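Q: What would this chain look like folded?
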Amino acid sequence: MSMRIASAPCCWGVDNVNNPHLPPWQKVLDEAAQAGYKGLELGPYGYLPLDRERLGQALDERGLKVVAGTIFDDLVDPANRDSLIRQTHEICAFLKQLPELPREPGQHYPAPYLVVIDHVHAERSRYAGHPDQAPRLDDTQWGTLMEHIRAIAELASREYGIRAVIHPHAGGYIEFEDEILRLMEAIPYETAGLCLDTGHLYYSGMDPVTWIREHAGRMDYLHFKDIEPKIFDDVMARQVDFFDACAQGVMCPIGEGIVDYDAIYRLLQEIDYQGYITIEQERDPRDADGSLADVTASLEYLKRQGFQADV
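A: My prediction, written as structure tokens:
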């Protein structure tokens, strides 16, 4: 069984490319390699330069390979369609220029993937983790969201052979159990898979072990994160905005929080999950000086459990 661990720029606080406090992208690559990672996601569109010569050389120099690109954007607004299509073209075209990744026998679809995430909306963010209070989309808005996902996934597959995977995310409009189930009814597995995230599932009221077990057939890719229980209880009680909660340390290194990674490891063996898993630990980019220690601790914990860092 082969489960390979990668990292992502959000571990350095890179979520909003317009945030003036983001670390230089070279620092992210340097520290990912220093911590022992061999795989990395591109992170949000506009952070890493999608230039084969420039970024490709930087990756090669550090022994890093790209396991996924990401569209983390407003998937609800009809006016955003052209931007979403442009991002799909540019990210997938870049991914196709990179060296091929090895494929494990048990992988449903080969990496690299295109991770599709509805971004954190201001009107939903303060209700992240609160399904009974969060505002919901009407049927027209939901239809637009599904149409955008379908267009992205079909384009990525048809023109580039890249598999799109949909990532439920706290503060977005695909977060809670009913929304994920509704998504799976609207988007067939032939069109797009799931990227389940252990931390977002827990944050939003679901048990990661149960969800991974019950939806393993739809899951092509995994994200790992962990949650600090005391901070989580506090931000839930105060109904704190999602990214403010991240800045307060609600996400912690793998193995130091409340998510049961012993049970998850046993489950992944049981379902014979093979392929890539990416660690994410959202934080305020002004705290990026602590990222190297945290991503190192996460990787070392998972390696002791039997996961691999090589790609």
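The mean pLDDT is 96.
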